[in-house]
UniProtKB/TrEMBL annotation:
Gene3D superfamilies in the record: MFS general substrate transporter like domains
PANTHER family: MAJOR FACILITATOR SUPERFAMILY (MFS) PROFILE DOMAIN-CONTAINING PROTEIN (PTHR23542:SF1), PTHR23542
Keywords on record: Membrane, Transmembrane, Transmembrane helix
GO MF, one annotated term: transmembrane transporter activity
Protein name: MFS transporter
Bilayer topology annotation: Multi-pass membrane protein
Organism field: Nocardioides luteus
PROSITE patterns, alphabetized: MFS
Cellular localization per UniProt: Cell membrane
Regions that span the bilayer: 20-40, 46-67, 79-99, 105-138, 159-175, 181-204, 225-249, 261-280, 287-307, 313-334, 346-365, 377-395
Amino acid sequence: MSEQREQSLVRAVGGTYFPLALVARLPYAMVVVGVLTLVVAGRGSLALGGLNSAMVGIGAATCGPLLGAAVDRFGQRRVLLAVSVASTAALGAMAWVVYSPLPDAAVLAVAFLVGATAPQIAPLSRSRLVAIISAYVVPGRRVRVLNSTMAYESAADEIVFIVGPVVAGVLAVAVDPWAPVVAAAALTLVFVSAFALHPSAATAQASAGRTPAAGSVRELARPRVVVIVVGILGVGLFFGSMLTSLTAFMADHGRPEEAGLVYAAMGVGSAALALGVALFPVGFTSAARWLVFGGVMLTGALALPGVSSVTGMVLALLVIGLGIGPTLVTQYGLGARRSPVGRSATVMTLLGSAVILGQSLASAITGNVAERWGTDAALLLPAAAALVVVVAGAVNARIGESSTAGGTPIPEPALAEVGR
């Protein structure tokens, strides 16, 4: 391996890559809160807002893995350029249709398109960086570089998770409820396209061309992969039920438009410990991390029905975040380890789609519960979602780490830091 190929990852991908990938993540983080806020404000129904969020998730869950498979076959550049244009158009249509005289069914159809065209930059960034590290970093340094890179990726996700709802909330309050969706459309067109055209996309594609032929699609259905999908679906269910029940909670306090700002508090604790995963001892296995931090999520969620003030809710969300960050880091890390050969982008987008689907389905269910039985009943649902995470973690612990899902075994520390 030449001296040039022993250069730092930052030099290999270019100094503009990481800030560009960070901003390109932002639109979807804004859309999650933006669509819910837009529909509730424009159509006057929390249940319909939750149902539209569900349609976004169904669209993403249906088409996200297909996007990943297309990337594995054709490369990120061509696929993302097409997706960025389609996503921009769908978001623009969403901002218009909510205030149009068209029926609710039309709003739901556009919401599906918003999800179907979601670029999913976070999993594709991980896939791109793993390919480049595998090709351009000497084996002796590869584990350390993967550790630090995936820890950064996790922190970047958490930063966007914090900033996205805040930006959406500020725009909704300062301008209008349609503003977050329109801003997301503009950011998608500019920054997702720039991410697609970045030279690192060609570098990663060239690296991928040197790997063995892609594994069978059937390998994606093996229990060792499915259990991760179910576990991360539980996290998505938690996000959706938490955001929607929090919106009802804030509405009871006369400040529903601030739900996104309060929700962002959960990301603070999440980001704090997500980076810390890189410092955990090797003996603290992925199976143990999943169970321990999933348990933290469940414990915090069980306390939610007893919260009576906005300040108390912020504190509860900070604690819950301490469990969410490491749980997602661990789940994505297992996904990277167990990806069949040549199916990295497919697996990463599958996991990302599971989060989105869970979030959206839970939003619809929780919105309906809140309208029928009130906020107290809705605040019980995050605990049910956290229980799904813990149960999946227990199943994962039983499955063990004896083999991979058809790919090449990678030492756990190498990919333990892959985050949400």
